[in-house]
Amino acid sequence: MDITVVFFDIDGTLLETGGAGKEAFQNAITKAAGAPIDISHVNFAGATDLDLFRNILAGAGRVSDPAKEALFFQALAAEMEAVMDGRTIRVFPGVQALLDALSARPEALVGLVTGNIDEGARIKLAHAGLHGHFMLGAFGCEHADRMEIARLALRRAEQALLPGQRITRKALVGDTPSDMAAARAVEAVAIGVATGRYTLAQLRDAGADHVVANMSNLTEMLSLLFG
To answer: What is the pTM for the complete model shown?
Structure first.
């Protein structure tokens, strides 16, 4: 069977948390650093949690190390669970219907390429009612570079194939130029969705093969994903 692998980013692509993610990050980095660090100026769009942590510490004149990073990841998961409790997550138009359609297609293998740590991704998706759709993924606690995260996700997709299956098409859906670069890194069709902070033109300029305002047109999205 020919398999189409479809990777999704999370924040700005599938959903938005109304600031809960940044609040959790702020609380976690304060715990890991042992003192408050201002992150109000930080652009989270397209970044990875590991890269953000390292850069924020460096900007404050501090050095990251594996022990600090492990402490930060643990704190971030706990803080994410705490701040998400009772929050309303907005799932973007068409996302639920598209994921339902993909989950019903045996030729589709659906995964994540996200800058979130694995537990952060799980918590956000679970609170949004989307978690059960993703069979695999790679995360922002595994590498600071989103392109390397995409490569890791692809290796996991290849390892997940059953006998007789082969990947004949790859697509990656995201809302930032970093997502478009990640798609190029694994030779996937880059689909830019303008539900985040970047416009259709900016995503196109960043190398998107296709751009959509949102994923509300199910027929169009399936056509772009499957060719």
So the answer is: 0.95
